[in-house]
Amino acid sequence: WMVFSTAILIKCRLEASSAYSADRAALQLEVLVSQHSTMCTKEQDARLNKDDAPVQERIKFLSVLDYPAIWEAKSELAYAMMNLGALVSAAEQFAQISQWDDVVECYAAAGRRSEALKVLESQDKNPNLLCVLAEIQDESQYFETAWQDSRYRCARAARGLGRFHARAKNWQLAAEWFAKALAVAPHAPATWFDTGIAHMRLALVKEDPEHSWREAARCFSRAASQEPDDADSWANLAAVLIQVRDLKPAASALDAAIRLRPDDWRLWENATRVHVALKRPARAIQALNRLLDLRTRSKRSVDSYLEQFEIVCRQVEQLEAETVDLPPSEAAKFNATTAASALDAYILRLKREAPASPGTSFARLWALCAIRVSLKMNNSNQVKNEALLRDFKAKQLRALLGTFNDDSASSKDTAQLCRVALEFSRVHDHATPSDRSSAALLLRSIADRAKLPADHDLRVQASCLEKVSL
How many CB atoms lie within 10 A of CB 334? Predict the structure, then answer.
């Protein structure tokens, strides 16, 4: 009986960690607890339930098995019920073994505040109960009493005072109380996290925030090391390290946060900035691709990352120039080729998925794409690259036209529009007659809106494209 019951108990503990089997584990644990109360002797067994084992059977192998006492089993059952949300049932189990602080917490969490206060009134106020009373009534004086009664050893009281001051936006006092709580109980990832938040808030209001940023980084680092699966700790650690320009550790922290929360666009945004600053164009392009995937969730337009994209384009161009004479086996050449391939693939994806929205920022985006394509015009895919360049120039033109005011356009805006239109007209060497005809219509429309004279180069180019298309 004892071997079988111990095996069932171990099975319950294993199943309790899974959301799919936690309820079954709690029910089985309740059966094990109820067996403690059916203590039958050998003579009584004949008259009672045949499944109830007599005392002689129960105590076999007791000294070699780790089977809990009744109060330990009830406590474990109560915590299992608490995790399932059966708070009132858990409170009843806690009451049977006089764990009054847990009884009060269960009643408070279940919304039965009057019953929680009734239990508190009937018990002597130890530091834990005082902390529970402070949390129910939101009174800091009970935390202070608990802190003093415990001879300054109750971490819960110090932590409660820290959170009380944090809610009041008194970040200096909050940080001090959190530090006292950590001095008593340093293995508390939630408290390290709260301390980091307090130091972050202090850094935002101090004239010399460097020390506060460093303290926040230390706190978030401890929180992440104690609870490695907490994405918030890694994300905040990365954000603080970015503030102090410690970028390589920030990139590592972002990698850990992204691994835990891959659909958080804010993490990918920070990753883009960090990898751009570290001159890692391939990693930056990977982050830009992910932001493109998450643009529906982030509600961010593609041109929001124009600055990072422009820097990446320059970095890739510089890498290619520096490694042009290196053999393909060199690591630097391989890195440059990888980054260039990633950039070219991203540009093609922009062509397919990015909206043709009006505005100067979108015009700049398509101009950068056109510049990248024009650098590859001398390779064997000249016809394909010319078509790409033509598409990007057309997108750039339409983006400029979307904000071009026919009546109040400045001479600078008109000159820019004409320059881009002329560049567009010169990339039709391998275009089809239909493409040339469409381009001529677009150029004539631009010339009319810009009120250009009949002998302007743009009208001449439109006439030439019309003749060739015929």
Answer: 13
- Which pLDDT score is estimated for 436? 86
pLDDT in tens, 21-61: 888 888 888 888 887 655 554 455 445 555 566 777 777 77
Q: Give me the amino acid identity at 196.
A: G
**What length is written for the chain?**
470
**CB-count burial class (<10 Å; 0-12, 13-18, 19+) for 173:** middle
Q: What is the pLDDT of residues 328-383, one digit of tens each?
A: 888 888 889 999 999 999 999 999 888 878 888 999 999 999 999 888 766 557 77
> For residue 54, what are the β-bridge partners?
40
Please answer whether residues 343 and 281 qualify as being in contact, where contact means their C-beta atoms are separated by less than 8 angstroms. Answer: yes
Query: Can you give the pLDDT at residue 50?
Result: 55
Would you state the pLDDT for residue 379?
59
Average pLDDT over residues 442-446: 86
Find out whether 130 and 149 touch, Cβ atoms under 8 Å: yes
Q: CA torsion 356→362→367→372, rounded to 10°?
A: -80
pTM across the whole model? 0.80
Decide: residue 300, CB within 10 A, 0-12 exposed, 13-18 middle, 19+ buried.
middle
Written as six digits, the tokens of 277 are: 């600053």
For 77-134, the pLDDT digits (tens) are 889 888 888 888 888 888 888 888 888 888 888 888 888 888 877 777 788 888 888 8
Cα 395 from Cα 216, distance rounded (Å): 46
